[in-house]
Amino acid sequence: MRVFIGLLALLGQAAFSQSAAAEGKASSKGKTAAVVASKLAAPKQGVKTPGVQIPFSQIKAEATLTTPAKPAFLYFAAQGPGALYAPDAEKVLKFEAKGNTAVDPIPSVKHPCGGMVNAFASLWVPSCGDGKLLRLDPRSLKVKSSIETGVLDVRGSIAASADSIWLITDSKQTIVRIDPDQDAIVGELRVPTGCGQMVFAENSLWLACPEQNKVLRINPATNLVDKRIDVGAKPVALVSGQSAIWVLCGKEGKIDRIDPKTDKVSKTIDLAVPDSAGAMAFGEGYLWVTMSGFPLTRVDLTDGKETVAQQFWGEGGGGILTSSGAIWLSNLNNGTVSRIDPKLVLATLAE
Q1: Which class for 211: exposed (0-12), middle (13-18), buried (19 or more C-beta within 10 A)?
Q2: Alpha-carbon distance 136 to 325, whole Å?
């Protein structure tokens, strides 16, 4: 059974100075004030390889969507023309991808949280306001069933495997397993405090545990933790791609690559942005990262390179995900969501 899983995540910010802009106006080399100001305001952090750092202001979004709230997560469902979903206080907002326009939201979801998944011919939405997991018809968006689970408001609290829905349900870090045929809880397990951000890949459930500096590999056949994998400090985001699990480690500002065959870190990529929250997505053959002060970073995974190819700095960043031919990036500062063409990103070069 084919399962589509949405991904999630956080933050980014920087500012240009008036003095730099004034200096740019006086430039006799034909460069605009914005470009000169951008160069003078370049951050101290980040990868310093020539040609990697680029002002985020140089990217022109295909569309900018406005949301009433500042969305803590984004989700894309690929059926038909595709649609983007973002949480609001008492509903889930929906935007049609074809026209980048807002359509009727999903009502009566009390504090949607943790993310969404599309599996078993349904959309699944945790509702933190009443502690329920809602199962929606993907076409009508009407509630098919409501399951009393309890829900913990942590990023990435829901995931789908081949035969089950998995959900973190309480502050004691209980993960429940839900059978979609019964719409009922059929198993549970306890994990360390502070764990969150789940993803299902390589026939396993993977869970980031920032306080333990570990990623747990859970066997869905036994509902038990098979491996506790040491990673860099404070793993805050997970994503799967190219037969690997990628872990964003916020304390050191690095990405660890876990090889599922050995359950060990086989590569570390330095983003040079320590002490930063962030999120990741995989698409178009690249790993995309958003972090504080660096709304968009592209990691090239082609031909085994696994290196930072572009790092855009400036204001913006929050949740990030990809769909066919698009990067969706939220800005937690102003509550907008930008649709960006990956080809445009690749074509944007440092001055």
Answers
A1: exposed
A2: 27
pLDDT in tens, 142-180: 999 999 999 988 888 999 999 999 999 988 889 999 999
For the chain, the domains span 4-16+41-347
Rounded to an integer, the average pLDDT of 175-202 is: 96
Compute the residue count for the chain: 351
Is-contact 211 170, C-beta < 8 A? Answer: no
The CA-based diameter of the chain, rounded to the nearest angstrom, is 72
327: its two tokens: 């990067």
CA distance 308 to 64: 26
Which pLDDT does position 41 carry in this prediction? 67
Token pair in block for residue 284: 């178009």
Fold topology of 4-16+41-347: Methylamine Dehydrogenase; Chain H (2.130.10)
Check the CA dihedral 52-53-59-65 and report its sign.
Answer: positive
- The confidence score (pLDDT) of residue 292 equals 85
